[in-house]
Amino acid sequence: MTNFMSQWVYTPVVKDHFMNPRNTWQEEENFQADGIGEVGSLSCGDQMQVMIKVDNDTISDLRWLTYGCASAIASTSMMSEMAIGMSLHDAYHLTPDKITEALGGLPEHKFHCSVLGDKALRAAIDDYLEKAGRENPFKNSVAKTICECNGVTDMQIEDLVKRGEAKTLEQLQEITKFGTVCGKCKQQVSDLFDEFKHIYNV
């Protein structure tokens, strides 16, 4: 029982960010965002929107709105504090591990809640760069190769799912050719595919 309960104990930092979340969006504020990122789905669980203002390739301000649990709220609040003042490059490389570390940890079964803030922030930066007519120079630097034989990355899988070009695992394999050589990557690709479908509600 002690081990089970310890997995669900929140740190004082998590409790503070849950009870007093920073940089939340307020309708009356009329926040004018340069980029907006939205991930998740109410039908599947947590949903999150991140709005950023950008000045000289630096996030000068940020607001967010989420429907989720205490861990999701605290993680996004911490992410917002960390991201403001960061360059777009550094913000794009802000990971769930870094957010969780700043919170002093999350219960083991709640770590996935920090992933949505990470994804929504990247989506907001993607949106800003697309609106500005600029190429995204950050994607390749954060991409991880999942299928070594055919050079398929997690970012490539994410983009195909997000854009609706790969609605099934079979379509994803037809496009990327993952798992057609040694086959060792199939389970990992399948897990990522399911995760991205959940995050982007497609």
UniProtKB/TrEMBL annotation:
It holds the Pfam family NifU_N. Residues 146-195 form the BFD-like [2Fe-2S]-binding domain. CDD domains: IscU_like. InterPro entries: BFD-like_2Fe2S-bd_dom, BFD-like_2Fe2S-bd_dom_sf, NIF_FeS_clus_asmbl_NifU_N. One of its GO terms (biological process) is iron-sulfur cluster assembly. SUPFAM superfamilies: SufE/NifU. Residues 10-132 form the NIF system FeS cluster assembly NifU N-terminal domain. Keywords: Iron, Iron-sulfur, Metal-binding. One of its GO terms (molecular function) is iron ion binding. This is Iron-sulfur cluster assembly scaffold protein. The lineage of its organism: Bacteria, Pseudomonadati, Spirochaetota, Spirochaetia, Spirochaetales.
